Structure formats: C-alpha cells, structure tokens
Amino acid sequence: MHESTVIGLKVQNHPGVMYHITGLFSRRAFNLEGILCGQLGDGTTSQVYLLVNKDQGLEQIVKQLEKLHDVLDVSLHEDYDITLFNRIHELIRTEPGR
Amino acid sequence: MKYSGAEIIIKLLEMQGIRIIAGIPGGPILPLYNALSRSSIRHILTRHEQGAGFIAQGMARSTGHTAVCFATSGPGATNLITAIADAKLDSVPVVAITGQVSSSLIGSDAFQEVDMYGLTVPITKHNYLAKSARELLQIIPESFMIAESDRPGPVAIDVPKDVQQEEVDVEEWPTVKNHDPVEPDADRIEQIADLINKSSRPLLYVGGGIIQSGAHDLLYELAKKASIPVASTLMGLGCLPPDDPLYLGMLGMHGSRSTNYIINEADLLLAFGVRFDDRATGNAVKFCPNATIVHIDIDPSEINKIKQAHVSLSGDIGTVLKHMIPLVNCEARPDWLAFVNRMRADYPFPMPDRDDLYHPINIIKTIGGLAAPDTIVATDVGQHQMWVAQAYPFQQPRTLLTSGGLGTMGFGLPAAIGAALANPGKRIICFSGDGSLLMNIQELATLADWQLDVTIILFQNGHLGLVRQQQELFYEQNYIASKFMTNPDFVAIARGFGVRGYDLKEDGREPVSIFQKALAEPGPCLISVPIDYTANVFPMVPPGKAIYEMIGGEIDA
After folding, report:
1. Which of B57, B214, B256, B488 has its CA 20 to 30 A from that of A26?
2. pLDDT of res. B539
3. Is B502 helix (H, G, I), strand (E, B) or coil?
4. CB-based contacts of B538: which residues, under 8 Å, 6+ apart?
5. Which phi and psi (to 5°) does residue B191 adopt?
6. Quick check: B153 and B87 in contact, CB under 8 A?
7. Terminal-to-terminal C-alpha distance of chain B
8. Which residues are CB-contacts of A35 (< 8 A; sequence separation ≥ 6)?
9. Using CB atoms within 10 A of its CB, is residue B523 exposed (0-12), middle (13-18) or buried (19+)?
10. Which of A20, A60, A66 sits opposite B121 (nearest CB)?
C-alpha cells in the first residue's frame, strides 16, 4: 500500500467548488482516497480534507489546487489522524444492503 | 438608480474599456443584447459561435488586452467550448459570457439548457454561474482581473435569463480591479545571474511567457550582453529580430537541425517563460540531459511539471530580467558562438529550390519580404502553420497568432478578423490550408460584413497534409481519410461571400505581382495557391523521440 498524506483546503462554500477540486484529480490522473468536508463558521467557507497517495504527482496537485480561485488555503498534514478516514471506511462498509 | 442585470454587465464591460464584442444572440441572452443595443460597444455578429470565440482571441492575442464574446445557452454555449479550451492552452485572456435558461428551469432539461458551468470547469482559469444581478457587480470586474493577471487565461460567466432581467439598486459602481504582482526573490535572481556568469555554454529557451510579459527587449538585452544564443518555441516567435546572429529560430518537432543539436550541447539551459511542451522538447527525459536547468515561469505549477529544474523561480519574466541584467557579466563567449556558427553552417535549413515558385516556403518568404514589419499573421493548423513558423520573418511580438497548445484547425480566419478589428490600419495575413479553412469558412461572411484588411493565403493540396505526412512516415504509407474526395473552388466561394478571390496558377501573372496587389488593396481577399501534396514539413522529430533524433531535412553534401 502507498504511503498516504492529507491535503487540507479552506474553500469558498458554493455548489461548484467540489467540482473544481475533484475535476482536478480526474484531469491530472491523480488518485483521491477519501474526502471529508464541512462548513466553517457562518457557512461562507468550508474546510476540506483530502486523503491522497504520497507519490510523484503530489507536488503538481498541490500547486494546481493553489491556483484554484475558490481555494483560499492549502496545507499538507503529514501527522493526520488516520482514524478519521477509517471511520468513513467503516461507515461505507456498514451501509445497509451492502 | 435601478439597473437590470443585463445593464449592469454592459456598464461594467464599458468600464473595462471593451469596445467590440463578437457573438450570436438567442433566447436566453436577449436581455443582454437588448442592453447592448443602448451601448457604444460595437457588436460583431458572427456566423458560428466558435468564430466569435476566435475573434475574441484574435483581439486579445494581438493586443494583450482581455476580449469578450457572447453566446446564447445550449448549442450557442457548447459551440464556444473549443475556442475557450484553445485560449486556456495558450494563456489568452478572454471573458466568455453565455446566456442560460432561467434559474427556476435549471436542472429540468429545459429547451437549450446545458450545464455550461460544469462544461467549462476544466477549460477555464475560472468560471461562474451568476445567481443574482447584484453578484454581477463582483463577478465582472473579478473575471477581468483573473483573465489578465499572472498567467492569463479564459473566464466563463453563465448568466441565467432571470438574472439578466432582475432589477437592483446600484448606488456605487465597483472600480476596475488591478492585481498587484509579487516581487520575485532577489537572492534567487542573484543565484541565476551567477550561474550565467560561470557557464561556458548557456542557451536561452524562450516562449510565450516573454511575449505575455512584454519582455522581448529585455530578453534581447540579456542575450546581447552575455552572448547567449536564443531558441524560441512556436509561442515565442517574434520576440527576437530574425536576422540576429544569436537567434536560432524555432526548436522542437519542426525546428532546424542545427538548433536542435545546439540545444543539447548547452551546459546551462535558461528556460524563460516556457512549459517544456512535448512539441518543443521531444522526449523530455532526453532533453538537455547534461545541462543545469533554470526554469522561470509566472505559473508555479509549471515548475517541475515535466522536467525537474535545478534552480527555479516563479515570477514575471520581465521583472526578473530587469533585476537580473545588471548582475550578468558582459561576455563574448567566442568558443561557444563559434561552435554555434559551425553547427549552423554544417546543418543549414533545407530551403526549396528558388525556381520552385509555388513551394509553400518560397511563397511564405516572398510574402514575408513584401509585408510591413508590423503586419499581423494568423495561421490555421497543419503543415502550412509549421512552414510559416519556420520561414516567415517575424519582427515583432504579437505578430504571430497561432493555435499552439490545442492546435485547432479553423482558428486562422476568425483570429485574423479579430486582429483586424482590434488593429485598424494594420494589414492582417491569414495563412491557411484547404482542410483548416473549411472548418470556419462561414466567417468569410463576417469578413465581408466589415470589409477588413485581411489577406487570406490558402495553400491547396487537397489533403489533410500533416496527417498524410504522418501516414507516409510512420504508418507504411497506408493513407486513410487524409485525401479529400472533392475539392471546392475556393475562389468562387470567396466571391460568393463578397470577398475578392485570385487563383495564383490560373491568373498567369508572376506570384509576386499578385501578392503586391493583394497586400496593398484595401479590404479582404483570398489567394488560392495550389501546392504539391507530397511536400512535407522537415526536419521532423518523430513522436516520443529525442529532439536530436530528427528525420528529413538533411542537405546533401
């Protein structure tokens, strides 16, 4: 398994912003392993955490994310809490009917 | 005072200095056209929205200022897509405004509804779906700031019909937004100057960034001061005088043999305002493997994207050069320049026989010799485009308008119209091929509408020439779908549209006398030049090969 890392994004909160972010990943053929997203404060901005593989493409994807007009801040989190994303995976596994 | 969303858009476009807008109306953008009818902005009605997109590009590429196009929802909007994607690949500041069905209908698969916001996400620098008339007060100035700042690019704004009609009170108009450029890192500039001073075989590899930044004079100053030879990409042509001994012309897939050989001998590659595109570098791994690579570009994401740089700097190349030139030593570099000259003598560009009057390279050279230095040249895409890049003596920046990144056939004619609209008094030449011209031939009607000084030189070989060339060289001469079954009479077509037409062969006069007449007469004309369909563009770096592994274009000793 690849070593993973987490990219933290502070973004403008509007319906198109996730399209811009996920579109970058598909366009640049970069894998996205998990997404956590929630609004901040009054809802004009949101915080997004992206679980990604730590490989050669990481530098390029971070630079591309920094160029997006609706992305206000990009940070890399080496020491993230993996259990956060594990819980998503559990949630998906326990979904009724699966 | 109350203004509708449409009136707000037009007023803000006027404030941005927009004088001309190309487009085609339709239901959901009619409120905007209604407001436009009361403005001093001139509207250019095209015959296809792609034409409007490329007219905007022709205005923007030739002036450096953001240009605007309009289209209606659905098919009008999707017809703009190619022109927007083309602007993204070549970093052209264009603001495309499209009508959309009313907000209440969005998502209902209404008549002429298409998700233009979603469609333009990957092909714009930024895009908007306006939700209210008030929001336009922020969106319009911001879109111009985004289109023009740093690395320019297209911005798309989708405006639902009800947003155009909504009336709001506007007490205060937003001011035009300016973007403050970041000062480049002074230590890094010093480090790069130091590398130049210590290098014995430096080489400048320059591109569109020089032209975007208006840094051609500074580039020339650096090259002259430190005796550094300069190779240009397709997008950088016009940034150096073509007859200067330091100028090596275009590098890459169809660059000269000597240029491609010389580049690989450099010990310091100064990549300024370039993006290591595969057409310029060939196989990137084998591109300058022994050189220290210095990469300066305004877009940080270009650094280390294709080729790992040893030293890099993201910033405006003009600002960087201004700071760098005083730190660079005056050098003559006699050994390096002697090597360069020897290579150029050993591997000269393969010129066709002078008596072969109809060889496209001879035609291009003849026209280049007749045209004024500020003449703007638009090309389409294919063999003729590469022959123009190899042979036309571009003297000034922004005199070559060509679809470099996306390589869009059909670009030339509408881009030439846009250049003519934005540069009254200048002659515009459009070099095209019979494959390309037919892709936007309907814009001859727009050209006739405005009687612009556009001279179309149409190379006719009855083929998709560059496709045929690849089939000959790489697919065992297995020709499929590269020859047209019938060929129209382009001179009759031009005349049918109300544009003067000349057939070079049938006319019987010397080509040069027809060109002289065509370049001097006011108004548009088309000159059909029949050429040998077996003529190929050489030399050529086969796809995936290193830049020094060229085929063709050898000169027999």
Report:
1. B57
2. 95
3. strand
4. B254, B350, B551, B552, B553
5. -60, -40
6. yes
7. 79
8. A22, A48, A49, A50, A51
9. middle
10. A20
Q: What is the pLDDT of residues A32-77, one digit of tens each?
A: 888 999 999 998 999 999 999 888 789 999 999 999 999 999 999 8
Lowest mean pLDDT: which of B66-75, B178-187, B399-408?
B178-187
Q: Is B146 on the interface with A (CB under 8 A)?
A: yes
Task: Assess if residue A37 is contained within a domain.
Answer: yes
Name every chain B residue with its beta carbon within 8 A of the beta carbon of A23. Answer: 121-122
3 state SS for B234-253: HHHCCCCCCCCCCEEEECCC
Angle, helices B412-422 vs B49-63, to 10°: value is 50
Q: How many CB atoms are closer than 10 A to CB B488?
A: 13
Q: How far apart are CA B383 and CA B433, in angstroms?
A: 8
Whether B186-346 shares its CATH topology with B360-530 is answered yes
For the segment B27-62, what is each residue's pLDDT rounded down to a tens digit? 999 999 999 999 999 999 999 999 999 999 999 999
**Identity at B279, one-letter amino acid code:** R
Option in A16, A27, A69 nearest B146 (CB): A69
Whether residue A16 and residue B304 make contact (CB cut-off 8 A), yes or no, is no
Note whether B305 contacts A60, CB cutoff 8 Å: yes
What is the ipTM score, two decimals? 0.88
Q: Token pair 């300066």 is at which residue?
A: B296
Question: SS3 breakdown of chain B: % helix, strand, coil, rounded to 5?
Answer: 40, 20, 40
pTM for this entry: 0.96
Tokens of B465: 């020439």
DSSP label at A44? T
pLDDT of residue B557: 40
Strands B167-169 and B247-250: unpaired
Question: Which residues of chain B neighbour A22 with C-beta distances below 8 Å?
Answer: none
Two tokens, residue B389: 């890049």
> How far is residue B474's CA from residue A4's CA, in Å, rounded to a whole number?
42
Closest Cβ opposite residue B301 in set A19, A20, A60: A60
Name residue A76's beta-bridge partners. Answer: A7
Q: Does B22 touch chain A (CB under 8 A)?
A: no
Rounded Cα gap, residues B538 and B554, in angstroms: 9
CATH superfamily for B2-169 is Thiamin diphosphate (ThDP)-binding fold, Pyr/PP domains (3.40.50.970)
- C-alpha B300/C-alpha B321 separation (Å) is 17
DSSP for B292-357 reads: EEEEEES-GGGTTTSS--SEEEES-HHHHHHHHGGGSPP---HHHHHHHHHHHHHS---PPPTT-T
Count up the domains in chain A and report the number. 1
Assign B228 to helix, strand or coil: coil
B435 has pLDDT over 70: yes
Examine the pLDDT at B473 and tell me if it is beyond 60: yes
Domain coverage including residue A77: 4-93
**Tokens at B104, concatenated:** 């209440």
CA atoms within 13 A on the CB side of A26: 8
B529 vs B358: CA distance, rounded Å: 7
The answer to whether the CB of B371 falls within 8 A of the CB of B427 is yes
Strands (E), B416-544: 428-433, 454-460, 500-503, 525-530
Any idea what the CATH number is for the domain that residue A60 is in? Answer: 3.30.70.260
